[in-house]
Write a structure and sequence with these properties.
Order of helices and strands: EEEEEEEEEEEEEEEEEEE
CATH topology: Jelly Rolls
Helix content: under 10%
CATH class: Mainly Beta
CATH architecture: Sandwich
Number of helices: 0
Low-confidence stretches: none
Number of domains: 1
Strand content: over 45%
Largest sheet: 11 strands, mixed
Radius of gyration: 17 Å
C-alpha cells in the first residue's frame, strides 16, 4: 500500500488549517485527539467496549491504527477505539479528508464522521450528524455517506444517504472526504462525488449544519446495522489504518 505525499498548505482554492500526518510512534497526539470510552451500546446495540489502550489505538509505521479485538472487557465481548477531535479540532465549513484502509470482517462497522460540538439545537439528531464514510463488513466494498437531522434521520427511515462500490477498500487506501459550505454538503471517495445534501433554508430541522462540528474515527462491532448478519468472531482482530487526516478551509 502506497504512503501519501506530504500535505500541501494550499491546494485548489483550499488552505490547510488542521492535520495529523501520523509521522510519529506511540499514542495519538493528545493535542489533537481524545478518547471516547465505554461499553453501553452507543445507541445502536453495539458489542464493543471503547478503550484508550495501546492494543486498540496507536500510531505506528506512519499510520493511526484502530484495532477491534475479540476479548472480554466489563460486560462486552469486544474492545475497540473511538477517537474524537472535540474541543481540539472543531470546524464550521471546509473540506475534511481522511485516507484510510478499512477492516474486512462481517460484524465490523468502521466510520469516519462528524458530530456537533455544542448541540446548539438539542440532543441527537436535532443538532445533526455528518457521516463521511460508513462500511459494514457483511456488505464488503460498499461505502455509505449520510446526514441525520431532526426531520431526516434513520429512526424515521428517511435520512439522506447514498453508497458507492469500491471493492478494494479493505486492501487499499482511499480518500474519504466531505466538502461542507453554508449551501451544501458533498461527499467523496477519492475524486468521485456521490452524495449531496443542499440547504433549502427550511430551518434547523433539515439544516442544523451552521454550527461547529468535530471529527470521529471508530470501529464499532455488531450493532443494529453492523451486526445485522452476525459477527465473524474468528476474523478478529480487525484494523482500520488511517494514513492522514487533513482539514481545509476556503481561501
Amino acid at each position: 500500500m502506497t504512503k501519501h505525499k506530504p500535505a500541501r498548505t494550499e491546494v485548489d482554492g483550499w488552505r490547510l488549517v488542521w492535520s495529523d500526518e501520523f509521522g510519529y510512534t506511540g499514542r495519538p497526539d493528545s493535542t489533537k485527539w481524545e478518547f471516547d470510552s465505554g461499553g453501553h451500546g452507543w445507541g445502536n446495540q453495539e458489542l464493543q467496549y471503547y478503550t484508550d489502550r495501546h492494543a486498540n489505538s496507536r500510531v505506528e509505521n506512519g499510520c493511526l491504527v484502530l484495532e477491534a479485538r475479540s476479548e472480554k472487557l466489563q460486560s462486552c465481548g469486544y474492545t475497540s477505539a473511538r477517537l474524537v477531535t472535540r474541543n481540539k479540532g472543531d470546524w464550521l465549513y471546509g473540506r475534511v479528508e481522511v485516507r484510510a484502509v478499512l477492516p474486512a470482517a462481517r460484524g465490523t462497522w468502521p466510520a469516519i464522521w462528524m458530530l456537533p460540538t455544542d448541540n446548539a439545537y438539542g440532543r441527537w439528531p436535532s443538532s445533526g450528524e455528518i457521516d463521511i464514510m460508513e462500511h459494514v463488513g457483511w456488505q464488503p466494498g460498499v461505502v455509505h455517506a449520510s446526514v441525520h437531522t431532526a426531520d431526516f434521520n434513520h429512526r424515521r427511515k428517511n435520512h439522506p444517504t447514498a453508497s458507492v462500490n469500491r471493492p478494494d477498500v479493505v486492501s487499499a487506501f482511499h480518500i474519504y472526504a466531505v466538502e461542507w459550505s453554508k449551501d451544501s454538503i458533498r461527499f467523496f471517495v477519492d475524486d468521485t462525488c456521490y452524495h449531496r445534501w443542499d440547504n433549502q433554508n427550511d430551518g434547523y430541522g433539515a439544516w442544523p449544519f451552521d454550527k461547529p462540528f468535530h471529527l470521529v474515527l471508530n470501529i464499532a462491532v455488531g450493532g443494529s446495522w453492523g451486526g445485522a448478519q452476525g459477527v465473524d468472531e474468528k476474523a478478529f482482530p480487525q484494523r482500520m489504518l488511517v494514513d492522514y487526516v487533513r482539514v481545509y478551509a476556503k481561501r
